[in-house]
Design a protein that fits this description.
alpha+beta; about 15% helix; about 30% strand; 9-stranded mixed beta sheet
Length: about 240
């Protein structure tokens, strides 16, 4: 699903490409959507890319390609991204359905159904054991169908090491508490007894690899006694501003 801001940005980029053949700059996108910073544009573009609406073109500065538009929007549609909302009648004011690459349950929308309260711990940060992040006074409501059996908790994500898996800075990660995980699962891992990190777990023989989802970061290899699994990722909750 697309948020209203994602929809506006997608239509704005498409219109500019149709009009000039040149992708707008991040500053132009920021101004068109009345956002305060370019970091919000980065998050919106990552969300659109993750959902298969756009593609970044390699080795070309600020180059984006529109792969598809939401249902009801023509590829040649022209708008400057600053409309007054009169064209929003064809989609929900909060989200718009799209044909995703995969079909996970959306974790950032509550449909008025049952919710459960999970303990919300602090931001995952190097040098901080999970126990030190626990705060019994903080909790967050999540859709009941997101969690299954077992104990669960939530953590605020810090950093961009998992952006290619669709996990962004500031997201809330919903974690099933567990000391085991399947090969390839995204886990909360305690490294050498003091560092907590959210990474994809890979095993090869006795070695354990903690793999980021960002080409700017290196995969780290550890011995079997250096990594302790503290939970597996079951969903992400994201708030768009």
């Amino acid at each position: 699903m697309l948020t209203k801001k994602q929809h506006e940005l997608l239509i704005f980029i498409n219109a500019r490409l149709q009009q000039t053949g040149i992708c707008p700059s991040f500053d132009e996108m920021k101004d068109a959507l009345a956002l305060k910073s370019k970091s919000g544009i980065h998050r919106l573009i990552s969300g659109l890319e993750e959902r298969g609406f756009i593609r970044r073109l390699a080795h070309r500065a600020r180059a984006l390609e529109i792969l598809r538009l939401p249902e009801g929007a023509a590829m040649g549609s022209a708008t400057d991204g600053n409309d007054d909302g009169d064209n929003d009648q064809d989609f929900d004011p909060n989200v718009i359905k799209g044909n995703f690459k995969s079909n996970p349950k959306p974790a950032n929308r509550l449909d008025g159904g049952e919710t459960v309260e999970l303990p919300l711990h602090g931001r995952i940060a190097a040098g901080t054991p999970i126990e030190a992040l626990r705060d019994p006074t903080n909790s967050i409501g999540v859709p009941a169908d997101m969690v299954g059996r077992g104990d669960h908790y939530a953590l605020e994500v810090e950093g961009d090491s998992m952006i290619e898996a669709g996990i962004l800075d500031g997201d809330i990660a919903v974690i099933r508490q567990s000391d085991t995980a399947n090969n390839g699962a995204i886990v909360v891992a305690l490294v050498e007894g003091h560092e907590v990190t959210l990474k994809r777990l890979r095993r090869k023989g006795p070695s354990i690899a903690l793999e980021p989802a960002n080409a700017a970061y290196e995969t780290r290899i550890f011995g079997p006694d250096q990594v302790a699994v503290q939970g597996t990722l079951v969903g992400i909750i994201r708030t768009y501003h």
